[in-house]
Amino acid sequence: MVSTTSDRTSRAADVRIPSVLVVLVTRDGARWLRDCLQSLSAQTHPRLGVIAVDNGSTDGSRDILERALGGSRVISLADETGLAGAVRAVTELPAAHEADYLLILHDDTTLAPDAVARLVDAAEGIEGVERVGVVGPKVVDWGHPRILRDVGRSTDRFGHPYTPLQDGEMDHGQYDRVLEVLFVSSCAMLVSRAAWQRTGLPDERFESHHEDLDFCWRARVAGFRVLMTPLAQASHRDASARGERRERERHRSSRYFAERAALASMLKNYGVLSLLWLLPLYAVLGVGRFALLTVSRRFEDAFELLAAWGWNLAHFPGTIRRRIRAQSVRAVPDRKVRRFMESAALRLPRWFEVAGRILAEQRGLDAEEEAYPLRARATSLARTHPALVAWALAVVVAALAYRRLNAPGVIEGGVLGAFPPKPSGFFGELVSAVRTTGLGGSQAGSPALAALGAVSAASLGNAALAQKVCLGLLPPAAGLLMYRSLVRQTGLRIAAVVGAACYALSGIVLWAFSQGRIDLLVALAVLPSALDRLDVAFGPNPPWKPWRFAVGAGVAVAIAVAFFPGMLPALGVMVVVHLVASRGRGRGLALTALSSVIGAILVFPIVPDLVSGGGRSLTSHVGQADFGLLARLSMGSAPGSWAVAWFLPASAVISFGLVGRDQWGRGYRAVLAAVAGLFLAWASAAGHLPDALTNAPGYVALAAASEAAIVAYGLAAVVSMGRQAFGYRQIAAAALTGLLAGGLGLQALEAAQGDWEIGPNRLAPAWPIVASGTPGEFRVLWLGRASGLPFPAPGGDPQGILEAGSDSLRYSITDREGATALDIGRGSYGGGYAYTERVLTELVSGATRNAGTLLAPLGVRFIVAATGDLQDSTVAELDAQLDLNLVPAGGLVIFRNAAALPPAASIPSQDYLSAARRTDLLSAASLPPAQAAPLREVPGGWAGTSEGGVALLAYQHTSGWRMSAGGGESPSFQAFGWATGFPLPASGDFQITYSLQWIRTVEAIVLGLLWLAALWITRKPVSA
Amino acid sequence: MKRRGRAQPLAAIVVAAAVAAGGVYLQRVVGPAPAAAAPPGTAPSGAWFCPFGGGSEWEVVLHVANPGADPVLVRVRSFGERKPAPAESYSVEPQSELVVPVAAEDRGGAGVVEYFGGWVAAGWVAHAGGDEGGVAAEPCLPKAGRRWLVPDGTTETKLHDSYVVVMNPFAVDAVLTVTLFTEQRRPIRTEAWSNFVLPAERSVAFHLNQKALGERTVSAEVAVSVGRVAAASLGVSVQGGIRSAVGHLGSPPGLVILPGGGDQGRTDLVVVNPGAEKAEIGALLHGRDAQQAVGSLEGSTQGPESATTYPVATEGPSTIELRAGPAGFGVAAVRRTFGVRSDEGASAGSVEPAPAWVVLPAVAGDPYNPRLFLANPGADPVDVTLSLLPSEVGAAEPAPIVVTVPAGRTISVPEEFLDAQPTAAVLAVAAGGTFVPVAASYSLGREGFASYAVALGVPIPQAWVPV
Questions:
Q1: Which residue has the higher pLDDT, A498 or B341?
Q2: Long-range contacts: B429-432, Cβ < 8 Å, 24+?
Q3: CB-CB: which of A786, A806, A925 is closest to B45?
Q4: Rounded mean pLDDT of A695-706?
């Protein structure tokens, strides 16, 4: 907005007084029309005429108009033509062409008695300000004249309207100067004859929505000025926005109309050169906005966005015609128009604007309270806007903590699974009927792959960027969702902020981030929401909409389970706690059951895996039976796992002693959950629980969330403590404050150092021996002691434990790239893993000297362990194998399997075929070295040329595999008791494909529809 | 309310104390769940590495004996300096022996016996041909490794040629360095034998005379930096025929038991100390009737990185029990024994006695004179049951016999027991206690002169000891 001079010079009295024709646009405004007419009748401007255009009112407005103005001054339109239609109708009258100015006026607007005169004065009477085309008044609220409604407006570069006013901003005279603006509201808009005749009339396609923006913009392009004069004042009731006016089938949101007008105005009013750079930017930002709306479940808003774009597409020819008309009268370049626009960035980080306002307010306060010390002012700011302060600090910590992850290229290290290079990798695995990772089989991909695929697609298919997006957003998301839960529970933002910070900086979150555990980080982010919903379900007040609530809870559970199935036992613990310690048991149990069923439906393809295989999909073998480590909510060595991490359990203990009456129940349940989580985590790590319940990270996550909640409950009591007699509460509160300040500060410092396990180039120097030393596909068997630790990168987490006394092993089988993100949410079990354990048993027992041959059907070419991670006896046994050869390597112990077979191979040996049909290991071990040929990968399977023998797929057997050769088709057999084999004909080409893909395709479609339905049911309300 | 207000801090303290106490209890008393022991393997397999050497017109046979109750599948491969021959598979019937001739045209000839479904013992008997004569026998090696000590070697005269046969039966090349130790000279490391690349599935013979001619004692250390190998010595003497002794894998031991017998009374004890410090050594001689210290080694020390040949006078069956000290120090040794016609035999001995052995024959053909000696270095007499594992299935075989080996003695098994099946392996199982057997036989002979060969028994792993 540009301020112009306010020096006004009265012209000589003999100057002709300009004539003004008021175009009063009415529709069903009988309630306020009289006020409007009265204000017109009171105008001091001597040459004023009024023509009313009634847009088919049915409430008697027309009668009022005719009584007030006479029938000849009222134009009745049968249809709703909007403001543009009304103006067009008036301009068809000779009077309009004779009037110097048209004053467009809404029926819910009243004018101050001198308003018209002041408007005319501004249009003609300001020295040095020529070619004024449009003038608007200062608009105040109808009922509260101290509240400003309009002082002229602007847009961003993309035509989105922007007002400098805040909601409910009071009129202190802060805008009391004539402002040159981009546009003024059409509620009261003075338009010069030259302007409307040269520019054209308002665009009637906009149906009374934002036509003022487009019209004024065009006037600007045509070289006319647009002014707002505060000397003229109007009161606007804004009856439509208040819902006081009968609406006629309005079924679009304000977002739709704003977006529609913005794009259309851009297309019409910008020059070609401006459009060349603005339209691509608009497209990118538009896609981003659409994605954000979709992700935040504002589906209707997203749809409105699409609809607005669709409208512009449908009306493109009309837009072009109007563009030609507008550009034909262009008198000024775009850069002069853009002076009256705001920065494009202003709409993106909206909260920055809020922050700026708050800081400005604070500066104002500072000016008033200069005597206040800095500390007091900081405390005041933190108390007044805790979330803002926390976010600001979080941004600083995150900027430091993530700095080493910002290098180009993919992130490696920890247990971070490799992302497929393209988003289609995720989607392909999701809809694939056979598992392409690990030892294959028919295990379905987790629905989590769809989310990861979407992130990858949103990252423009850049795997490195997708990794960083996931990792960068998840810890703040965990804090944010914890904050939202705690705000609902405590009603105190500062307590919720501290609780959320405790959670986000807890040992488990930092450990999960350090190791790149995207799956656990998602579960940690969702966990507070899931626990909050349990709190509601079992709480004293039933949810408002039980079905919507249940679907929402089901979605939360489904997300957690899809990424990290091991969160299920932890949530089960919380349900048990509620059953023991809550009052609404019946309702809570019913809602929980319903939510569980919905959650199960939303992940139905992986439900069979969750309930079969002895619960191994729920199992995590990570975790050390170190009570001290677990008690400080950490799972191992990582930033934030040091002694300072005790701050959270210690704070929780103190807070529990402070919890107020209103939060006593919640605090009690949180303590039960925290204690249960801690002990179960230890029992998991110590191997005392069955597979289905063994998941130490899940239990520690529950303990962390519960302890953070206890802290918030305790702080809520402290905040509301008020001035009481000095006692233990004050001492405890002081201790708690110090503990939290120190703990959070030091944890934040630790995080800010950014010494994570993940980062660029974090793989062992010896790993290229495995990854690049051998062409073709192969698998890697990772071994280590049963220590509860993950494997060195990129081995990932152990998939199983082989119990063998002191020689017990943890193991994992990966592809040549190591752990993959495609396995997120998916356990590893089945005949192939059982076979692997049998082979490992032979190895550690010292029975075999042909472990390589035994591992050959698994496609294992390398055995890898961290240096020192294997018992000497195990290394000796490996070294004693005839077919395993130690490869010199630093940092890793690598054995190369001389007998390895490709994961898909044809072996021209009848001996091999005979052995493959058996299940005993001796037959496999005594096989001579095989001359295998790898099969060619073709869409949906493999192909090769037969020389007899057997085609062996190192993928767990499922009945859907078929081999076609020589015009016939033959089924597979279960090779070595678990793999997939086909007896090969003596000669000829053959092809192996999976015949039951259609089942998974249907499943994927149904799954997609179910998620759409669930998200639709739980969508956020549409924006006003 | 007030009551609860007061109880709250107490409850917090109680919870904290209970968690702490529970944690301490779990950590210190309960502890991690014990892991179940691994079940026994169901697909036993193993391999024997036989670096027997060879030469023009040599005949080498591998003896594979199965003392168990089930047939065992074996796969035999032989190596040399050229591409290996295809593997041959056989089944060794229970309680019997298989004799497999193998190619041995190269000086560095070697073979591998893989076995599946049970346990077998394997050894070789080599009969020199062409311009060379004599018989050598040794058990094959159960493991390949990265450091071998091969004590036996002499290059004192041009009449003696000493070799170290190194085999690499694996699928990757091995890189190794051969260091020679003598009595007086500093360790000999040559460029040609440093970082020597032995290709996969090949074997080679290092001719010690090329690097250390004129030494009474030349011992070798084979250090492997990449891969694994197996090594043995091969001695070829114009006067004394041929002899073999397998190498010692790993660090030198503190105790070596070296039984022998059937010789003409002259024994050389070759001792090598590859360490950087001198080792104190001493030896006991367990004879047929008495036990005494070996005088020539009394109070001796073996200098660092050196090898020495100690002559020991023996009579009849005898066992040298060599000890090295102090604790942590060790030496490798070979007992080189001379037959009645100066044909030599050599044995690397055993580092410990065992309760059950398979003794493979050391005879190469008619005429036979198989001998078997049993040493008991322990403090109690041992009853040993001997039974034959014949190579001809269904052949008449004598009933098992039981012999008692007095404590600290070495005895000879009755010859008539062995004469019934001269080429049969012998299963020797002690009823209680341990012992060490050795076959020391005369057979064939060159131009009418009998050839002497010594082969230590093969201890049977505990899991495979016949009940």
A1: A498
A2: B429/B355, B429/B356, B429/B357, B429/B384, B429/B385, B429/B460, B429/B465, B429/B466, B430/B355, B430/B356, B430/B382, B430/B383, B430/B384, B430/B385, B431/B382, B431/B383, B431/B384, B431/B385, B431/B402, B432/B355, B432/B380, B432/B382, B432/B383
A3: A925
A4: 97
Distance CA(A758)–CA(A521), nearest Å, equals 14
Compute the average pLDDT of residues A72-95: 86
More confident residue, A743 or A170: A743
Helix, strand or coil for residue A1019? coil
The letter for the amino acid at B42 is: T
Q: Are B98 and B64 in contact (CB under 8 A)?
A: yes
Distance from CA of A848 to the nearest CA of B (A): 5
Strands of A13-147 (E only): list them: 20-26, 48-55, 74-77, 101-106, 109-111, 132-141
* B13 chain-A contacts, CB cut-off 8 A: 653, 657
Asked if pLDDT for residue A10 goes beyond 50, the answer is: no
Q: How far apart are CA A620 and CA A685, in angstroms?
A: 9
| pLDDT score recorded for residue A368 | 54
As given in the structure block, the two tokens for residue B404 are: 């008692």
What pLDDT digit, counting tens, does each position of B285-324 carry? 999 888 899 888 888 899 999 999 999 988 889 999 999 9
Query: What's the pLDDT score for residue B394?
Result: 65
Query: Is the pLDDT score of A726 beyond 80?
Result: no
Residues of chain A positioned with their CB less than 8 A from the CB of B31: 625, 686
Task: State which amino acid sits at residue B346.
Answer: A
Are B4 and A664 inside 8 Å of each other by CB?
yes
- pLDDT of the residue at B329: 84
Which pLDDT score, from 0 to 100, does residue A1001 have? 94
The torsion of the CA quartet A386, A388, A391, A396, rounded to 10 degrees, works out to: -100
pTM given for the model: 0.83
Q: What are the b/e assignments for A894-919, b being 16+ CB within 10 Å?
A: bbbbbbbbbbbbbbbbebbbebbbee
Nearest to A129 by CA among A176, A173, A164, A179: A179
Of B4, B23, B87, the CB nearest to A928: B87
Q: With 50 as the cut, is the pLDDT of residue B96 above it?
A: yes
Work out the pLDDT band at B340, boundaries 50, 70, 90. confident
Place of tokens 């139905």: A604
> Which of A802, A803, A919 to substitute to test the interface with B, most B CBs within 10 Å?
A803
Determine, for residues A807 and B22 on separate chains, whether the beta-carbon distance falls below 8 Å.
no
pLDDT recorded at residue A412: 92
A848: chain B residues, CB-CB within 8 Å:
41, 43-45
Residues whose CB is less than 8 angstroms from the CB of residue B284 and which lie 6 or more positions away in sequence, other chains included: B291, B292, B293, B294, B320, B321, B323, B377
| A882/B1 CB distance under 8 A | no
**% of chain B at pLDDT higher than 70:** 96
Q: Which residues of B touch A885 (CB under 8 A)?
A: 170-172, 227-228
d(CA B385, CA B381): 13
CB contact under 8 A, B45 and A849: yes
Task: Please tell me what DSSP assigns to residue A18.
Answer: P
- Confidence category of residue B450, pLDDT binned at 50, 70, 90: low
Chains A–B, number of C-beta pairs less than 8 Å apart: 147
Residues 6+ apart with CB under 8 A from B338: B240, B263, B264, B266, B267, B268, B344, B345, B452
Structure tokens at A872: 């000497």
Residue A350 has pLDDT above 60, yes or no: no
Q: Which of the four pLDDT bands, split at 50, 70 and 90, describes residue A1022?
A: low
pLDDT value for A940 = 85
Residues of B in contact with A631 (CB under 8 A): 19, 23
Closest-approach residue (CA) in chain A for B35:
A805
